[in-house]
Amino acid sequence: MVDALPPAEWTARADLAGLVEALGSGNLRWVGGAVRDTLLGLPVKDIDGATPLPPQEVIARARKAGLRTVPTGIDHGTVTVLLPGGPVEVTTLRHDVSTDGRRATVRYAQDWADDAARRDFTINALYADPQSREIFDYHGGLADLAARTVRFIGDARERIREDHLRILRYFRFQARFGAALDPAAEQACAELAETLKGLSRERVAMELLNLLGLPDPAATVARMHRLGILPVILPETGPGEIATLERLIAAERMAGIAPDPMRRLAALLPATEGTAESVAARLRLSGKQRKRLACVAERNGSDGDDPRLLAYRVGMECAHDRLLIAGLPVGALDGWAIPQLPIKGGDVVAAGITAGPRVARMLRTVENRWIAEGFPDSARVAEILAECVGAEG
Q1: For residue 352, what are the contacts with CB-CB under 8 A and spacing of at least 6?
Q2: Is 390 exposed, middle or buried (0-12, 13-18, 19+ CB in 10 A)?
Q3: pLDDT tens for each residue of 119-174
Q4: How far apart are CA 199 and CA 258, in angstroms?
Q5: Can you tell me whether residue 215 is helix, strand or coil?
Q6: CA separation for the pair 312, 316 (Å, rounded)
Q7: What is the pLDDT of residues 69-82, one digit of tens each?
Q8: Please, what is the Cα angle at 62 between 57 and 65, to 5 degrees?
Q9: Where in the chain is the domain with CATH 3.30.460.10?
Q10: CATH 3.30.460.10 at 1-147, yes or no
Q11: Backbone phi, then psi, for 5, in 5-degree steps?
Q12: What pTM did the predictor assign?
């Protein structure tokens, strides 16, 4: 079993070495995703550090070394150090005093093992010394990582009662890293599924969309439904919608299209009036996201008749969503830009139509002919306009 963090591009950063020097030898260890993903050979996006130093001491030592800091989570012991190669969150070691499933009251600690014990999964409680790259594993995380098992630290029910969002985090991590299932974790999540109702809707939406943005979450979503977890947060979804998600993921893969969590959320909703708006409101999605769900919910059996007309009517993004969810080809839209009608009201007036309501009607008539002919160029549109004006006499 590996006992040292392998070399990676981020571990060689000079600015990180400067941070280690600023905080002092033995006062900083890398922890969490950066360690886990490096061990798996995956790209590292965010770097987190843990320290026995209190936040104000971290700020003072960083300032003395000429490093800027932002107290992003100072109430919970987190200071963000702004480095040339990217920010690093440094959090003081903690242990929980009390929790209510939504937030925790913590106390600073000096023992690395105390800090590890309050984390969610064993694979996220791996620490690495920045200089020697020695790994510190307090809960068997290395073995779980090797077996691709996502396992709660200690008693799964206790960890979930501390933070109910860990139910959704479990399934997201399982979809991303897991191979072997942990029956104890699955059972605990199922038993405590109703606790998800007490969470803020924004937190639920964030985790759900993070899950749906993974390469292939279909099997995990189906399991969440069988265990009674998905119905708590997305009661509109049934077996039919899960099958639609499976087909969508296959269609995305075949077309070489990147995963899109909003498109996949749309696939999980029945195409019934009002459903998309209701779900968007419940999850407190943005106005843009709400409009997208509503547009996709209007999908129907004629979407594939003319993909370019569909894109012209609803926009390129929504057209792609509707075609892919329906299992219809999107090739007709490749490299095609939605055109604009080459004439405006002034052109209609210049052609002899008196200003007023007749202008708008004529524009609609010309536009319908233009669409029916497959969006011809401006020269043909001028001819269409002349024909339509002539027909009005």
Answers
A1: 389
A2: exposed
A3: 999 999 999 999 999 999 999 999 999 999 999 999 999 999 999 999 999 999 99
A4: 30
A5: coil
A6: 7
A7: 999 888 889 999 99
A8: 130
A9: 1-147
A10: yes
A11: -70, 125
A12: 0.88
